[in-house]
Amino acid sequence: MHPKPEPARRHAVLTPLAGLIFASRWLQVPLYLGLILAQGVYVFHFWVELVHLIEAAFGNQHALQILVQSVGYDASKVPLTALNETIIMLVVLGLIDVVMISNLLIMVIVGGYETFVSRLNLEGHPDQPEWLSHVNASVLKVKLGTAIIGISSIHLLKTFINAESYSEKTLIAQTVIHIAFLLSALAIAATDRLLHPPGSGEAH
């Protein structure tokens, strides 16, 4: 018994006004192209920092001073003449931070374009992201919230490692901000679960 062929999809006929409003979604394309350029800037920044770290590891004092300034390390008490573990950790955490922000950009660019502009038609492509197959506005918000918490965690860890270079007020403020991000993400996830409970048939 042969399965019945699926009926061909009918394209809705839009009025001129509805067509214009619907076509306005393409105005977002320059925004996503701008984010791609921003990601290129992050890639350049990543390699600059990595090159400085390698040069400092081989004793380049100029590269070491650039790293000290970039991570906000207070070298006034004990002048640095070589890399120490704290500087290495701060620089590596900074590199991880760049990677996580780049991942966030990819989620916004790919997921946002797929959700709000046009289909990418990646079904069956070997490199299709797993999460893209069931992405929608709600899933995208939860994933972005989770990514922001990860980025905030890296920033907070960098601050705690280099705590002596910050005031107590700054440490408390960053901790409170991180908790606020965490509570916001939990609220978004809880709201999404209330609106789309498991088993409701909506893709998550």
Spell out the blueprint of helices and strands:
Blueprint: H1 16-23, H2 29-57, H3 61-71, H4 85-116, H5 137-161, H6 168-195
Descriptive key words:
single chain; 204 residues; mainly alpha
What does this structure look like?
- There is one protein chain.
- The protein is elongated, with a radius of gyration of 23 Å.
- The chain is built from 6 helices and no strands.
- The chain is mainly alpha-helical.
- Helix 2 runs antiparallel to helix 4.
- It has one domain.
Structural category is mainly alpha
Specify Rg, calculated over alpha carbons: 23 Å
Helical proportion, percent range: 55-70%
Uncertain spans:
none
The percentage of residues in β strands lies in: under 5%
- Number of beta strands: 0
Task: Note the gap between the termini.
Answer: 34 Å
Shape: elongated
Order of helices and strands: HHHHHH
Mean pLDDT: 81
Total helical elements = 6
Please give the domain count: 1
State the major sheet. Answer: none
Describe, in short, the structure shown.
With 204 residues, this protein is mainly alpha-helical.
